[in-house]
Write a structure and sequence with these properties.
By secondary structure, the chain is α+β, with helices and mostly antiparallel strands. Helix content is about 55%, strand content about 15%. It is elongated, with a radius of gyration of 32 Å.
Length: about 425
């Protein structure tokens, strides 16, 4: 087909669509909805992926989180074996610090027993704060601590079980609006602690948009909650030695926890990249499900296009007969109707892109912290898929038009 023939066919297709605007719109409504949904979901998942991967990678490329079961995202519930695993202990963290040659920092993290912990200062209250007992190395290892004012506590204060705390930015604003918090006493879980430092809100955090962290020395946490038993361990490998560090940590913990050589680990080692990989497996499944559901709309749109193109062939039978009588070939008639079907669904695809962009805009307004944006590949894919639907579902009507006998077509009324 020559460029001139293609241009004339496209111009004729656009004129036909323009003369039946409402019919064309209703025909491709399914394509618009299907394409728009895929693009909108792609934009939301892209923003969600950027936000979550930022949180996970904020722990640093050399960090290992040790816990009794995997940290992060997973499909399915904990297995019966995982539910019965024993908690990690402070001794485990001590052994890792002493015996791992590829490790730069180790910090045990102690969680309070189940229940809501509140913070108070002179009648101002903050509810459901995130309280942890950590060591000095946590400030270096986690990537989540950037001091605003004051300082972080030392290991000596942890050994002395000093009643001190470092608080997050939202607690600083909520309890000490227009005041210097350093040296002020706060009540956390009914215990008095002296504020020695405040933290800036991390660029990405497990705790969402709010920063209600209260970090206390590990020994202080043990004193506040003698029945606290649940530990995690944050390990930072030396640069370039993450695989060796993981092997050392696994070996030492298997020895400490007396795991038989023929049994699997009864603990989990999680890295930022591994958690990102687990998360992306889940989002891939979600995206696949949404594509399948959106394909129903595309299928309905494709059937509508085929139906309206059959109607168009019937309406233009006399025109087809004239074209064939003056020398038009089968391929010319076939191409004309395929171009018309592709142009119809292509315009539906463009409208679907606009609809998907609108979905992403609304999502950005609702979820202000999520960097929602329409990826270029999804817009390109939307056009390709919509045009492909027009070509696929337009083959039968176009072939029917191309096979019309010119004598019979000219006698059609």
């Amino acid at each position: 087909m020559t460029r001139l023939a293609f241009g004339n066919g496209l111009l004729l297709a656009l004129q036909t669509i323009r003369s039946h605007k409402l019919r064309a719109f209703l025909t491709v409504l399914g394509v618009i909805i299907g394409t728009g949904t895929i693009i909108g979901v792609s934009a939301i998942l892209t923003g969600f992926d950027a936000q979550i991967t930022g949180v996970l990678r904020s722990f640093g490329p050399n960090s290992i989180i040790v816990f009794k079961f995997p940290v992060g995202f997973r499909v399915g519930n904990l297995s019966p074996e995982e539910r019965t695993r024993k908690d990690l202990t402070y001794q485990n963290a001590h052994d890792l610090r002493e015996r791992c040659k590829s490790v730069a920092d180790v910090s045990a993290m102690l969680f309070p027993p189940h229940g809501i912990v509140n913070a108070r200062y002179m009648g101002n209250d903050m509810y459901d704060v995130n309280l942890f007992g950590v060591e000095e190395g946590y400030a270096r290892a986690s990537g989540q601590v950037e001091i605003h004012v004051g300082r972080f506590f030392s290991d000596e204060e942890s050994r002395r079980r000093a009643p001190v705390a470092v608080i997050g930015s939202d607690i600083e604003k909520g309890l000490f609006a227009n005041m210097d918090p350093i040296g002020k006493p706060i009540l956390v879980g009914g215990r008095e602690l002296i504020v020695i430092g405040t933290m800036l809100r991390p660029a990405a955090s497990f705790f969402g948009d709010t920063d209600t962290r209260v970090l206390v020395p590990y020994g202080t946490m043990q004193k506040m909650f003698p029945n606290a038993r649940e530990n995690a361990i944050v390990v930072t490998a030396k640069d370039g030695l993450l695989p060796q560090a993981m092997d050392e940590v696994r070996t030492i913990l298997r020895i400490d926890r007396r795991v038989p050589y023929n049994k699997p680990d009864n603990f989990a080692l999680s890295t930022a990249e591994q958690m990102v990989s687990d998360f992306r497996q889940i989002t891939a499944i979600t995206f696949l499900v949404m594509v399948v559901l959106s394909s129903i709309g595309l299928l309905v749109g494709g059937i509508g296009v085929m139906n309206i193109m059959l109607v168009s062939v019937t309406e233009r039978t006399f025109e087809i007969g004239i074209r064939k009588a003056i020398g038009a070939k089968k391929i010319d008639i076939l191409t004309q109707f395929l171009i018309e079907a592709a142009a119809l669904t292509g315009m539906g695809g463009i409208a679907g892109i606009a609809f998907g962009w609108l979905i992403s805009l609304i999502s950005r307004l609702v979820f202000t912290s999520m960097p929602v944006s329409v990826p270029a590949w999804s817009a390109g894919l939307g056009i390709v898929v919509s045009v492909g639907i027009g070509l696929f579902f337009g083959i039968w009507p176009a072939n029917k038009a191309a096979k019309l006998d010119p004598v019979v077509a000219l006698r059609y009324e």
